[in-house]
Amino acid sequence: MSVPTGVELELDDIQRGVLSPRPTPYAATYLAFRIDDRAHGRELMRRLSGAVTSVADSVSPLGETWVSAAVTCAGLRALGVPRSSLDTFAWEFRQGMRARAKALSDVGESGPEHWEAPLGTGDVHVVITAVAPDSPRLEAAVDRARPVYERLSGVTAIWRQDCCALPTETEHFGYRDGVSHPAVEGSGIPGSNRLEVPLRAGEFVLGYPDELGGVQTPQPTVLGRNGSYAVFRKLHQKVAEFRRYLRDNSTGPRDEELVAAKMMGRWRSGAPLALAPECDDPGLGADPYRRNAFLYERDDPAGFTTPGGCHIRRANPRDASVAGEVRLHRMIRRGAVYGPPLPDGALEDDGADRGLMFAFVGAHLGRQFEFVQSEWMNDGVFFGAGDARDPVTGSAEGGAGYTIPRRPLRRRLAPLPRFVVTRGGEYCFLPGLTALRWLGDLQD
């Protein structure tokens, strides 16, 4: 466990989208661009440096509204960043998500050959994200950002995905989302678990010491410092199939909710099994100060309350010794739903595209996002479950079932289908505001 170092972050140079939790509820949009003319791409960077919101900018004309800008490796090449500089970025970032598909278990119907264009094609160079408390203010934020890219004929808008966080804070499977957020040293932003010591700033922001004492910074320093990496993934959710699985593997409505909780590790209200083991507690689930304040190893090492294979225990094993140094794999995750909800009680798919826009932010693509995705979500070796995969988001294709620890006999559910399908994604770099200006001032 790290000891606080008193580091001071340069918050006025770090994009707000790196460290700040999103408001609740909120609306968001992702806009993707291709750079066809280098000079226009650089002008876009100059304009973005004045439009992007920093962590220090806590007062916005539109309230809890901000704009973030990210660049892919292909985008950095299109801007003319020298090869010597590109070679100092994380190798996963340089390869791109499409090349990393097998390691991420994006195979079968989640394979890149089935992705939604232009994701994974190399045409996505810049991703602008706008976040606001509601749709009218989101559109106002987009309108304010529009002069940044309009009238630049060498920059082409090629994709847009609108999404939101509902007032209920739930995603399409019905679970409260966005419950867990780590505290980052020097940010001044509290975490969601008072039992978790703040993580070193270098786990999430480039140019600062991380949990191992190292400092990761792409070169030159003016480009890398105060930046971060971002992973964007469009994930389609098979809501009707998920509902049918719960129905077919339970004895009735009450048992169905228990099975759903045992698969997620939380009741759908957000109340964790660790604090509400017998029945749901909506009041607890709605309380951001209580619903995430728990550990596993002291009270539930065998997973009789919160199964070791459930979604939240895989994604963040907290104090689990069998998972190695958990703090090295801690992530900032954000999700927003897209598409219309499937009507309550419907058990047949209506053909609508619905799911989650997933975002990861961190300084270590390999040991944070990719490690958790490959070793914890899509494998079970770390807690003694062989090749068992995450029951909610894992890449299972009807192979292994799901086991719920129970005395005197464990409960074994039917083989798990794939409930979540990858529709595409990108590995991006979130430059600091100084770095955006540097990119804008590049010369051939």
From TrEMBL:
Family designation: Belongs to the DyP-type peroxidase family.
Organism phylogeny: Bacteria, Bacillati, Actinomycetota, Actinomycetes, Kitasatosporales
rRNA-binding in keyword set: no
GO molecular function, one term: peroxidase activity
Keyword Metal-binding: yes
GO CC annotation terms, alphabetical: cytosol
Known cofactor(s): heme b
Protein name: Peroxidase
PROSITE patterns with a match to the protein in the record: DYP_PEROXIDASE
SUPFAM superfamilies in the record: Dimeric alpha+beta barrel
The entry's keywords: Iron, Metal-binding, Oxidoreductase, Peroxidase
